[in-house]
Amino acid sequence: MGRYSSEFKQSMIQKLLLPGGPSATALAETSGVSQATLSRWLREAASVALVANDTDKKPPPREARRPEDWSPDERLRVVRETAGLTGSELGVYLRREGLHEATVTEWRGQALAALGGSRARTKEQKRIRELERELTRKDKALAETAALLVLAKKARALWGDEDDDTPGRSGK
Prior knowledge:
The chain is mainly α. The protein folds into two domains: 111 residues, no CATH class; 34 residues. It contains seven helices and no strands.
């Protein structure tokens, strides 16, 4: 029937469910079983546990953490592992990890944006360059205005105000 004994499968599932245990990818590298197979075993075990509703044999929950305490590698692992899960399987997984579906959805969006965001980044970079050029132009104009004001002040200091009592050219 299967290539692996049920005892072996159970031991792999238990390793995956240990608090701080390895990811399916890491365990695949050390055990020789593919990551997809390990993930499928984990999903199947979760759905069997849900149907059986056996509280004595429930996998131990992982230590609860805030979503912002998860490393980028852990977030990516969760996004990958939840990609094929739906309904009750997803619920079991989220409860075991101590996460909300909205958090995983946000992480998935961030991962997709990071992977497909080159156009957006290019547009942002173009806009930044435009704004920097405009800022440089305005800085130059401001410096020119300041220089003109300084020159006007110096000219008044040298030649005096035209509004003083000295006679002008008209000979008054």
